[in-house]
Design a protein that fits this description.
This protein is α+β, with helices and mostly antiparallel strands. It is about 30% helix and about 20% strand. Strands 7, 10, 11, 12, 13, 14, 15, 16, 17 and 18 form a 10-stranded mixed sheet that branches. β14 and β15 (about 280-285) form a beta hairpin. It is globular and about 65 Å long. The N and C termini lie far apart (about 65 Å).
Amino acid sequence: MAKTAADVLSWIERDNIELIDLKFIDMPGIWQHLTLHRSQIDESSFTDGVAFDGSSIRGWKSINESDMTMVLDPTTAWIDPFMEIPTLSVICSIKEPRTGQPYDRCPRVIAQKAVDYLKSTGLGDTAFFGPEAEFFIFEDVRFEQAENRGYYYLDSIEGRWNSGKEEPGGNKAYKPGYKQGYFPVAPTDTSQDLRSEMLLVMAKCGVPIEKHHHEVATGGQCELGFQFGTLVEAADNLMIYKYVIKNVGSKHGKTITFMPKPLFNDNGSGMHTHQSIWKDGQPLFWGDGYANLSKMALHYIGGLLKHAPALLAFTNPSTNSYKRLVPGFEAPVNLAYSQGNRSASIRIPLSGPNPKAKRLEFRCPDATCNPYLAFAAMLCAGIDGIKNEIDPGESLDVDIYDLSPEELSKIPSTPGSLEGALEALEKDHEFLTTGGVFTDDLIQTWIEYKLDNEVNPMRLRPHPYEFALYYDC
C-alpha cells in the first residue's frame, strides 16, 4: 500500500494508470466522487488539493461559497475493483481554498480534529475503533411515495414469508425462521460464496479482513468483519466496506441495504462499535475494576452514557434508526453497561487476560451514520467522561426481561425518535465543541438538515398502517 505522495505517483507511473478517482464524504454520510486524468494529479494534490465545485453537496456552503479543494490522502490509495478501466481510488479530505484551512463541515476533517483533541489533553494519543455493520441482501426492492399512494416491497430468496411460495423448480423450503438466522450452514445459508467474495475483494482494497457470517434475521441478514483501526482509518475502512458489499451484491443481481429496520417483526441491523484509548503504544482501558476495566475506561463509559441521548443524533441519525431501538430484538435501548447483557447499550466483551484486547462496545449505533462524525462524537463524549470523572453507575448484570416495571423505570433509555435525539443534541453539545472538534455551525446545520429533510417530511405523509387502523373511523 502507498504511504506517501511519491509512492502513489510512482504507482500511477509504474502501472500506467490513467484515471484517478477521488472519493469524499458528504455530511449525511454518502460517498461522492470525481474522476481525473493522471495529468491533473501531481505532488501538490496531496498538500494543496484539487479544486472542485462543492455547491451541490448536501449540508455544505451556499453557491456563492462553492469553491472547494479535495486533498488526497496517499495512505488510502487502492485499485477500484469495480471499474472496467484500471482506476486508482484515493480518499480525500476537504480544504477551504480561500483560507487554506481544513473545511469545518468536512466529516473527515472533524474526525481528525477529534484525534488531535485527544492528543492535546494528554490522556492518550490513539483512539481505536472497530465497527460491526450488519446488512440485508435482497433480490427485489420497490418503493414509491406520491400524493395518493405510498408503499414498499422487499423480497429475499431466504425470506421465511416465501415458505409457501411457488418457485421455479419447486420451493426447497430452506428459509431461516424469524430470529433464527444466526450461523446456519448451507443450504439454509444461501450467501456463503457471495460473502466470501465480498470479504476477499475488501482485502484487495486494503481493508484488513477477519470473518463473515449470517445474522439473526430471516431475509438475508449478514455481517462481515474487519480489524479495528485508528479512528480515521476505521471510518475510511467502513466506507470501503459498504462500497464493496453493495457493488459485489449488484454484480450478482442482489441489492444490499444497511437500513436499520427494513423488515417488520424481526431483528434490525446495527453497527456495534468497539473502542479503546492507548498512549505510547500501551492500552489504557485494562485495569482492576469491573470486568477488568480501568478507572479511565469506566469514566469513558460514564461520558458515553451521560451524553447518549445527544450522541444518538450522530450515531443513529435516521428516522428508521428508532424502529430498531425498541425493547426486544436484542435492542440496546437501556443506557447502562454490562459484561454480557446485550440489551445494555454498552457491553464489555469477554476479551481474556490480554490487556491489549480490553475495550468496550457501544451497541446503539447503526450504519446510517456518517462514521467520521459518529466516531468523533463518541470519542468526545468519552473524553468528557474521563476529564470530569463521570461515574457510570452500577452495571446492569440481570436479565432485563426479569425486571419489574418499577425496576425497569429506574434505568434510563435511548430516545424514542430522531426528533428526540436532535432535541437532546440542541441542549447538550458542549462536549462536542470543547477542543474545537465540532463547531456550533456544524451542529446547527446538522439539526436543521435532519428536521427539514427527514423528520418533518415523515410527519407530513400518512403511513400505510394508519389506513388499517383508522380508515373505517
